[in-house]
Amino acid sequence: YGFTIPTFEVGGDCFDIMEINQSCYAFILADVAGKGIPASLIMTSFRSYWRALIKNIKSPKKIFENLNNILINDLDEK
Fold first, then answer.
1. Could you tell me if 31 and 14 are in contact, meaning their C-beta atoms sit under 8 angstroms apart?
2. How would you class 54 by CB atoms within 10 Å of its CB: exposed for 0-12, middle for 13-18, buried for 19 or more?
3. pLDDT, tens digit, for every residue of 44-65?
């Protein structure tokens, strides 16, 4: 259980907990630089990518390498 209270109307702060199996959980805590709607949209994408990757990849290093590459490509298009 948890919640966040953004300083402004929307923000880029995020935490998420996901059960991998009965004895293993994955936890992420992140903050996007900047505020407002653009930051919240980036964080929404980040969380979705993270949840998809964590289901299929067991190595934290590989998860974050993939996540980094995905986000670099996404953010470079804007």
1. yes
2. middle
3. 888 999 999 998 898 989 999 9
The helix (run of H) or strand (run of E) holding residue 28 is strand 24-31
DSSP H or E segment with residue 75 = helix 60-76
Total-model pTM: 0.74
Confirm if 43 and 32 have CB atoms less than 8 A apart: yes
C-alpha distances in Å from residue 68, one per residue of 5, 6, 20, 50, 61: 26, 25, 21, 10, 11
- 38, amino acid identity: P
